Amino acid sequence: MNNLVTITDSRKPPLIELRLWRQFVTVAEELHFSRAARRLNMTQPPLTQAIAQLETTLDLKLFDRTKRSVQLTAAGAALLPEARDLLARAQALPAYARASADGEAGRLRLAFVSTVGFDLLPRWVLAFREQYPKVQLELIEATGDVQLQAFERGEIDAGFMLHSPGFAPPGLACQRIAGDSLVVAVPAQSPLAAREELTLKDLLGQPLVIFPRSILPSLYDAIFAMYHAAGQLPRVAQEAIQMQTIVNLVSAGLGIAWVPESVRQFQRPGVVYRSVTPGKTRGRSVSKVTITGSSARSLQVARREVPGCETSLVWSSASVNPVLKRFVAFIGSVPR
User: Fold this and answer.
1) Which of 29, 210, 221, 270 is the most buried (most CB within 10 A)?
2) Which of 322, 314, 312 is nearest to 151 (CA)?
3) Which domain holds residue 120?
4) 185 three-state secondary structure
5) Does residue 13 lie in a domain region?
6) 46 shares a domain with 32
7) CA distance 22 to 18
8) Of the candidates 66, 101, 136, which is a domain's last residue?
9) How many angstroms separate the CA atoms of 273 and 180, rounded?
């Protein structure tokens, strides 16, 4: 039986100085050692030695030399564009370092809820890229609860979150960017779709498609408080996480859904959007309902009031990412 022995070369590839690459590129462009030496402000013998050193290090012949001519070998010709690119990137490094320190280059990991993606986010991303073309924007669609977990793990730099007015996530810096009314998405086949405007009383008995409380507790509580104040318990037919999925379920006839006004941008066959007025209901005599729980503080909802919602940009105030500071300032300056 033969004993097979595998020999692995553990030596690291040689580190070649930029000076040698610059000398190689100059000789390759001139195809003449004397002219190349003049361009490099050196004499010919050290240049010849430098090229010989580079060939030895690479274990490749880069030039075919005779007394009358110098020509690139196939290996030298293949290496030339890569060497030029290396020198160009090395030359650009100082400027890139300064741009990174100023927040004009680098990376920003930006999470967002789907409602921002319908209208605002595409315009903002385009405008930010035009203003800061050296910044790499990494977009991550995620619900608010997932974003909070990502902040804890240091996986995102900023996020657009949806919440009830005044209920931005605690522990994060926050900049309100938009306020939205809630409208109702109604199956097109429902008799309710024939009316241009609905009252809360029209909707109280309808099956409801809604997001889980865990992903948006403040708005979930506000919707339930509105029903409770009107003396009705919501009939939850189905829960779904993404607004697009909720609207799709409405189109299938599973029920109605309360969605931000911006969701009107998502035109889905089989769904109509209607504004809702509080109207008159046979509510309880209380003037407000207080909900407590993981929303972090009491939520007071006026009797028979249709709640609204807000979108905010949130980020960790402890972040040292210069690009984040640029983005926060940019969002603060763009028209709503």
Assistant:
1) 221
2) 314
3) 105-175+312-333
4) strand
5) no
6) yes
7) 6
8) 101
9) 14
Same domain for 185 and 126? no
Separation between Cα atoms, residue 167 and residue 312, nearest integer Å:
10
* Sequence-ordered strand ranges (E) for 223-307: 235-239, 257-260, 271-277, 288-291, 299-302
Task: Tell me the pairing of strands 235-239 and 207-210.
Answer: parallel
Quick: pLDDT tens for 255-295: 999 999 989 888 889 999 999 987 655 444 333 434 444 44
Structure tokens of 177? 């960017």
Q: Angle at CA 75, nearest 5°, toward 73 and 81?
A: 105
Which among 135, 136, 156 has a CA at the least distance from the CA of 147?
A: 156
- Note the residue count of the chain: 336
Alpha-carbon distance of 225 to 227, in angstroms, equals 5
Write phi, then psi, for 134 (nearest 5 degrees). -90, 0
CATH code of the domain containing 162: 3.40.190.10
Report pLDDT digits (tens) over 140-156: 999 999 999 999 999 99
State which H helix or E strand residue 152 sits in: helix 144-153
Give residue-wise pLDDT tens across range 118-176: 878 999 999 999 999 999 999 999 999 999 999 999 999 999 999 999 888 888 999 99
Q: Yes or no: say if 164 and 218 are a contact pair by the CB < 8 Å rule.
A: yes
Q: From the CB of residue 121, how many other CB atoms can be counted at a distance below 10 Å?
A: 19
Instruction: Single out the residue of 291, 290, 253 nearest to residue 269, CA to CA.
Output: 253
Would you state the structure tokens that stand for residue 92, as one six-digit string?
């650009």
Kindly report the CA angle at 233 between 189 and 187, in degrees rounded to 5? Answer: 10
